[in-house]
Design brief:
The protein is of the alpha/beta class. It folds into two domains: 219 residues, TIM Barrel, CATH 3.20.20; 111 residues, Immunoglobulin-like, CATH 2.60.40. The protein contains eight helices and 19 strands. The strands form four sheets. It has an eight-stranded parallel beta barrel with strand order 4-5-6-7-8-9-10-11. A four-stranded antiparallel sheet has the order 12-14-17-16, with no helix packed on it. Strands 13-19-18-15 form a four-stranded mixed sheet, with no helix packed on it. Helix 7 packs parallel to helix 8. The longest helix is centred in the N-terminal third of the chain and has 18 residues. The N terminus is likely disordered.
């Protein structure tokens, strides 16, 4: 049984153009990617939305994770001059795929063969991304043999595009397993967040001497940050994230031109993962944050004309998130947000209260968004300082502050707090 039927999914408007050949060449100890005979360095976005913005800000490539999304974005990306890392979602042990089931493994391989045969000549394709984080919570090393079989098949069917597999972070065991069991993998892809700086040295120390790409990078992961006394992860403000994106790009990606062939920022879009603001460089309504300003800078060398507001601090009763804020049920408490706009634009403040998410998943699996809660407030909401009435039900919550310039840019932060039962 095929996992996916590829036939009929694309309008194939550009198939007649034929493939743009992509090559990896080692030159004087350094690896260089060539696309259509020209040097090509990936300035990529992880996500398939707002492609016009991606181009405007200097991106040149799009990452996809699975066949459906790849096929749906091929033509649109090519229209805008963007290449596509074509994702093949390889079955994951943590999601129930059994690599001891030979029929399922073979069906997966043949399914991907059909996909490759149908789309290998599309001019948008840059590489084939075989699997994503198959090393996450797994025990069966045969997955790497299966990934190698897929990569070998691709090399047989498509001589024009390299193969890549992606791991969750970097571990010496996975590097060595891929080297031993998956020699047909051309490029090592790494999803890494707070640990990105130093990846170049670790890869070399672990024995990898071929090209690699940073396939997801961005803010600190929700598993990497400080937590409150009740275990709520503390999210960085949009200001803190922007500074980290810049530092991590410059010191974790751009500083290794010998082996790193580029990167895909995560997430070019928005999603619920721990919170609805943690990973997306856009807010739910499409508003841009300081992170997009920084991405334009690292990709092009210049900032946009209109800069996003910056949010310096958010506190409840004078305490920040790292103080583990407790409030009394049903009582009013002060919320203060300190923000400014670098262009002098008038700021618009908005607040949102929601219970702490209890649906935090691993590996980016789909989560349900907590529902916003009505709450009473006193004071001038546009001053950045209000009093809000705490929920009456005991438990963990978060207060979000959105500060907009009215021109499509905003700053955002949230503060977790715990409601103690009424005395």
């Amino acid at each position: 049984m095929l996992l996916f039927s590829a036939i009929g999914y694309s309008q194939d408007r550009y198939m007649h153009e034929g493939p743009i050949k992509v090559e990896l060449k080692e030159e004087n100890g350094s690896w260089q990617m060539y696309r259509g005979g020209e040097p090509y360095y990936i300035k990529g976005v992880g996500g398939q939305t707002r492609l016009d913005k991606a181009v405007e800000y200097g991106a040149n490539s799009v990452r996809t994770w699975g066949v459906h999304e790849a096929v749906n974005v091929l033509d649109k990306a090519h229209e805008k001059g963007l290449s596509v890392l074509f994702g093949l979602w390889v079955g994951q042990e943590r999601q129930g795929f059994d690599y001891n089931d030979g029929r399922a493994v073979q069906a997966q391989l043949e399914s991907f063969r059909e996909v490759v045969k149908e789309y290998k000549d599309h001019p948008a394709i840059l590489m084939w991304g075989i699997g994503n984080e198959n090393d996450l919570f797994y025990s069966d090393f045969k997955v790497w043999n299966a990934i190698n079989d897929i990569a070998k098949m691709i090399h047989e069917e498509d001589p024009n595009h390299p193969t890549m597999t992606v791991t969750a972070g970097l571990d010496v065991a996975e590097v060595q397993l891929i080297m031993e069991r998956a020699p047909h993998i051309d490029v090592y892809g790494i999803n890494t967040y707070a640990a990105i700086i130093g990846i170049d040295k670790e890869l070399r120390a672990f024995g990898w001497n071929r090209p690699y790409a940073i396939t997801e990078w961005g803010p600190s992961g929700h598993w990497e940050v400080d937590k409150t006394e009740w275990g709520a992860p503390i999210e960085e403000t949009s200001r803190e994230k922007a500074a980290l994106y810049k530092k991590r790009y410059e010191q974790g990606i751009a500083r290794d031109p010998e082996m790193c062939i580029g990167s895909y920022v995560f997430l070019w879009g928005q999603k619920q993962e721990t919170t609805p603001t943690w990973y997306g460089v856009f807010l739910e309504d499409g508003t841009e944050t300081e992170v997009t300003d920084v991405l334009q800078y690292v990709w092009t060398g210049s900032y946009p004309e209109n800069r996003a507001p910056t949010l310096h601090e958010i506190t409840i009763d004078g305490k920040d998130a790292r103080s583990s804020v407790y409030v009394e049920a049903g009582r009013y408490h002060s919320l203060q947000v300190k923000a400014e706009d670098p262009d002098g634009d008038e700021l618009i403040f908005r607040y949102e209260l929601m219970p702490e998410s209890r649906d935090i998943k691993s590996g980016g699996d789909a989560e349900s968004r907590p529902e916003s809660m009505e709450f009473r407030k006193r004071g001038d909401a546009q001053s950045g300082q209000i009093e809000f009435q705490a929920p009456r039900k005991e438990g963990p919550y978060r207060m979000f502050a959105y500060v907009s310039d009215g021109k499509g840019k905003a700053a955002v932060a949230n503060i977790p707090f715990y409601v103690k039962a009424e005395l």
